[in-house]
Amino acid sequence: MKIQIGKWVCAAAMLVAMAPLPGEMAPDVSVIPVSEKVFMLAGLPDAGNVAFLVTGQGVLVVDSGASPADGRIICEKVREKSDKPIRLVVLTHSHGDHVFGLQSFPADALIVAQANLVKNLQYDSEEVHSRLLQLPARIAALKAALAKLGRGKKTLREKEGKDLARAEERLAFYQQLRIVPPQLTFEDKLAFRLGEETVEIIYPGPAHINDNLLVCFPGQKVIHMGDILFNRSHPYIDRRGGSDTANWIKVLQEVQKWPLEKVIPGHGELAGKEALAEQARYLGDLRAAVSAAMQKGLTLEQAKKEITLPAWKELGWPELLPEAIEAVYGEMAKK
Questions:
Q1: Are the beta carbons of 54 and 81 closer than 8 angstroms?
Q2: Shared domain check, 110 and 135
Q3: Are the C-beta atoms of residues 222 and 260 closer than 8 Å to each other?
Q4: What is the pLDDT of residues 262-314, one digit of tens each?
């Protein structure tokens, strides 16, 4: 499928972030040059990596941040590099830390996603609605509990106070959040020109989730992997969202063959193709460990206790390992 973008003016949980509250410091977000025309944003604390392509006919942004506040910051950073309009926003997948900033983008920016994202985004919308219904009662209960605590229970009062503050922050976040659906979806591949640059958006099949995309800028020798690449951290594997670690490894191996110089991960620092090989090795080791545990007859909970992946002890986000084990265990149990 191909589209030409010329004079046409385009028409927009793993992690849930909180918008900055009054008095909070705005995050220190920097713009990192990836190539002559591609830039990456670093410093959005709860969001996946955002990138943008600057051309003579407009800007394409990859992902939107984790909150409306993130979306506003992204648009401001784009304006620092280009006075051209943001024409497209490509979503690498449906997780909130990549899509919850959409409402802050220009209304005439075209939001592009893989077809499965629409259904997955509906799950998020339902969850937001559920939180909006549940949180007021939770807040009222915490306030009542605080009111009953005696002055001598300082430690417990501090804990309950922090729980109350977090619940109020979550409610404020969900009250301001608007789930924005894509206007253009596709099944397998979308290729087009924006200004002088070719853009290829590829659905490689389910890997991290069943709507994950690769966004490739061949003229710049750059690719945004979305969460198909977690650079130097344990990956989140979304079993509910249709993850497939066997295919994930195949995708990483295939992309290593492409003529690329820079790889933008969904999370972690800007990388080269060596990060793709490392992620593939990690997933291979994880699958081998889970397979061995299952062959020994271990239950899921036993496997979680036994599998530690010592070769990967230096990776960030070790708290994600039990979830990764569970996802792979469930994947293998179905076969």
A1: yes
A2: no
A3: yes
A4: 999 999 999 999 999 999 999 999 999 999 999 999 999 999 999 999 999 99
- Residue 130 and residue 109 share a domain: no
Single pTM value for the model: 0.88
**Two tokens, residue 204:** 């490689």
Residue 145 phi, psi (nearest 5): -65, -40
Cα(80)–Cα(84) distance, integer angstroms: 10
d(CA 332, CA 119): 25
**4 bridge partner residues:** 193
Query: d(Cα 51, Cα 147) in Å, to the nearest integer?
Result: 47
The dihedral region occupied by 24, where left means phi > 0, alpha psi between -120 and 50, and beta the remainder, is beta
H-run or E-run covering 325: helix 321-333
* Residue 206, number of CB atoms within 10 A of its CB: 20
Quote the domain boundaries for residue 61: 2-118+180-228+258-272
DSSP code string of 219-255:
TTTEEE-GGG-BTTBPPP--TTTT--HHHHHHHHHHH
Distance CA 306, CA 328 (A): 14
Residues 46-75: b if buried by 16+ CB within 10 A, e if exposed: bbbbbbbbbbebbbbbbbbbbbbbbbbbbb
Of 84, 126, 93, which is closest to residue 15 (Cα–Cα)?
Answer: 93
Closest CA to 211 of 277, 287, 122, 128: 122
